[in-house]
Amino acid sequence: MADALHNSAHLRVVSDRGASRGPLLQVDGVSLEYRTPARVVRATHRVSFDVHAGDRFVLLGPSGCGKSTLLKAVAGFVPPAEGVIRLDGQRVQAPGPDRIVVFQEFDQLPPWKTVRQNVMFPLQRSRGMSRAEASDAAMDSLAKVGLSAFADAYPHTLSGGMKQRVAIARALAMRPKVLLMDEPFAALDALTRRRMQEELLALWDDAAFTLLFVTHSIEEALVVGSRILLLSPHPGRVRAELNSHQFSLASQGSADFQAAAQRIHQMLFDEPEARTAAHGKVVHA
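Structure (tokenized):
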């Protein structure tokens, strides 16, 4: 078998972003900065990418490359120092219910509310649903993540993985245009993390939502993503954009998967490798 990294049927560097429909999310030349007592620090430098409806788009890079800050900018929490972010053609200027974030922290659920109430709350507050409508929608969403039996439980009685499933259920119940996930499984043990990856992909198969997912794990990026944007070490610049839809959890351990992971590592950290590719086009910083 030909080397997976030099076969367009395997890990391919994206050379054509065209699609029959325009992108749902556009990040165009975005630089992000934050202030410290001593100076202004640039987190990302002129990052551009498009996300189409139904994509599982992963931002992958080492710690400190600005990927989480970039996700927060898409959510509307961090304004760009330069460049623009558009959702459905409209400039992103503030948070909104069309973009819901799931973080890695387990304490993102108000502890005084039951599981059902946690899912209901944003439906009533942001979507204007009645209590009965919100309850029905919450139970439907909880059923999809396998937590119907825990609807009346409180967060402190749940494991870390279960809390993340509640957070995902709450986010999906809102039917956002883009689900934003900031290293949501990073704090979980390996077995629970794998199960959560399986459940996330099963939910995507069922609902085909649009996902923007942040991770520093190459293996997780290959499993979760259909497309991967590689960001350089600080400040984050685009190294490449790759198709990865051919990989899955079942691929882990295979020669193709391991070769792809090694190639991505080289593109992230080895400067010569970051500038060239055997096939396709590298997106330059």
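The CA atoms of residues 153 and 227 lie 37 Å apart. The helical segments are 67-75, 115-125, 131-144, 160-173, 190-207, 218-224, 255-269, 271-275.
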